Amino acid sequence: MEDINRIKVVLVEKKRTNKWLAEQMGVKPSTVSKWCTNSSQPDIASLLKIADLLEVDIKELLVRKYKNFILSQEL
User: Fold this and answer.
1) Sign for the pseudo-dihedral over CA of 38, 41, 42, 47
2) pLDDT for the residue 3
3) How far apart are CA 43 and CA 16, in angstroms?
């Protein structure tokens, strides 16, 4: 299955855990685990909340190569 989100990567970058995100979101840790493995996807409202919690732009959660994406937009 193709990776659709970068939640796992951003959690690592922000030094946060799946358990922390689950507690903040009010969901089961297994739900966050499914998001991190891309076996299921959070809805848009959840993605917005995740972006706020992790203090990132929502695009950073959706685009695999976010930095390359941003650089290509600046050209």
Assistant:
1) positive
2) 77
3) 21
3-state helix/strand/coil string of the chain? CCCCCCHHHHHHHCCCCHHHHHHHHCCCHHHHHHHHCCCCCCCHHHHHHHHHHHCCCHHHHHCCCHHHHHHHHHC
Structure tokens that stand for 19 in this block: 């358990």
pTM of structure: 0.81
- Residue entry with tokens 């739900």: 31
Intervals of the chain under pLDDT 50:
none
Instruction: Describe the chain by its helix, strand, coil percentages, rounded to 5.
Output: 65, 0, 35
Q: Based on C-alpha coordinates, what's the Rg of the chain? A: 12
Distance CA 65, CA 45 (A): 22
Q: For residues 21 and 26, what is the distance between their CA atoms, to the nearest angstrom?
A: 8
